[in-house]
From TrEMBL:
SUPFAM superfamilies: Glutathione synthetase ATP-binding domain-like (SSF56059), PreATP-grasp domain (SSF52440), Rudiment single hybrid motif (SSF51246). Homodimer. Catalyzes the ATP-dependent conversion of 5-aminoimidazole ribonucleotide (AIR) and HCO(3)(-) to N5-carboxyaminoimidazole ribonucleotide (N5-CAIR). This is N5-carboxyaminoimidazole ribonucleotide synthase. The gene is purK. InterPro entries: ATP-grasp (IPR011761), ATP-grasp_carboxylate-amine (IPR003135), ATP_grasp_subdomain_1 (IPR013815), PreATP-grasp_dom_sf (IPR016185), PurK (IPR005875), PurK_C (IPR040686), PurT/PurK_preATP-grasp (IPR054350), Rudment_hybrid_motif (IPR011054).
Length: 376
């Protein structure tokens, strides 16, 4: 697995019961997965020679992020290295412009969009969709490299549109969608085309970062849930995805589903599956990239809630275990081995049960207590 973050750490954990030998390319020995994986190569995923050396002896290469240069992946494939997902699929998660063009081609709805060249072009884009006023605000995104709110701007006039262009990379303009909530549809697809779909979840964002995931999404009709799953399965098939695909969606106030982002790897919106699904996203991602039969994706309980644990001003989170575990013996805590820094994702908690209000309260209390924002 290329990438040493928490996604690699949890994927490695899922492979242990299957006896899967796991090799890791990590930026440093201190990264989350590098702390627990035995076979670690420290190197730069942007260097082709490093990738070639890392690939020696590997049956298959997969990823915990999308940042390996596409041309390097094509070179590995040309040399006979199985790369899953392959570069022709992964580029759609790497480049937002390529992704939007592909969704248009296969008929999957997404926000109105266009590559823009300068602030004046942003103003023209805004006006193209205006039904009144000047069409602002507009969302601007760098086509590559953004995540967790980075590389994304909400601009309200032409002067405010200048900053995204300073990086010297293409910029994608999108309409600012008036959405009711954010959903995520996760599917897993194997090389021979077997696919499974997880229950559609609601994802609650705070300051551009995923805070809470509720599985299944409350008050989502069976028809709408099936529509979201069909969209995700269609994208996985048409783009040739192997492994886990997370499709982040807007549910608009007028009842539409629009694709926001794609991720071709285990994803934060799927962490609930570790404790809440028959087969976790991590286990099914491994099964897919190894072309093993996929596991059942169904939920184990009526409701599962995952809340991310962010770092705060309270560095000793582990002393909070006593309170959290005693208060809620069914609570599941997953920490990533990271140094605690304010706002940094350092872990998550999951709870499950029959009553959504109670399950939400338990998860949010535990995450808050671990962070230090709740003290009793």
């Amino acid at each position: 697995m290329v990438g040493g973050g928490q996604l690699a750490r949890m994927t490695h954990e899922a492979g242990i019961p299957l006896g899967i030998r796991f090799k890791l390319l990590s930026a440093s020995p201190q990264e989350s997965a590098a702390q627990v994986v035995r076979d670690v190569v420290v190197g730069d995923h942007r260097d082709l020679d490093t990738l070639r050396r890392f690939a020696q002896g590997c049956d298959v290469i997969t990823f915990d992020h999308e940042h390996v240069p596409t041309e390097h992946l094509r070179a590995l494939e040309a040399e006979g290295v199985p790369v899953r997902p392959g570069p022709d699929a992964l580029v759609h998660a790497q480049d937002k412009g390529v992704m939007r063009a592909a969704l248009d081609r296969i008929g999957i709805a997404s926000p109105r969009h266009r590559i823009v060249t300068d602030p004046a072009d942003v103003t023209r884009f805004a006006a193209e969709g205006a039904t009144g006023g000047d069409g602002y605000p507009v969302v601007l995104k760098t086509v590559r490299g953004g995540y967790d709110g980075k590389g994304v701007w909400v601009v309200r006039d032409e002067a405010g549109a200048a900053e995204p262009f300073r990086a010297g990379v293409p910029v994608l303009a999108e309409e600012k969608v008036d959405f009711a909530r954010e959903l995520a549809a996760s599917v897993v697809r194997s090389p021979h085309g077997q696919a499974v779909a997880y229950p559609v979840v609601e994802s609650v964002q705070v300051d551009g970062v995923c805070d809470t995931v509720i599985a299944p999404a409350p008050d989502l009709s069976g028809e709408r849930a099936a529509e979201a799953q069909r969209m995700a399965l269609t994208i996985a098939r048409e783009l040739g995805v192997t492994g886990h695909l997370a499709v982040e969606l807007f549910e608009t106030r007028d009842g539409r589903l629009l694709v926001n982002e794609l991720a071709m790897r285990p994803h934060n919106s799927g962490h609930w599956t570790q404790d809440g699904a028959v087969t976790s996203q991590f286990a099914n991602h491994l099964r897919a990239v190894l072309d093993l039969p996929l596991g059942a994706p169904g939920a184990r309980a009526p409701w599962t809630v995952m809340v991310n644990v962010l770092g705060g001003d309270y560095p000793d989170m582990y002393s909070a275990y006593l309170h959290c575990m005693a208060r809620d013996p069914q609570l599941k805590i997953h920490m990533y081995g990271k140094d605690v820094k304010p706002g940094r994702k350092v872990g998550h908690v999951t709870t499950y049960g029959d009553d959504l209000s109670e399950v939400l309260d338990r998860a949010r209390h535990a995450a808050g207590y671990l962070r230090g924002t709740i003290t009793e």
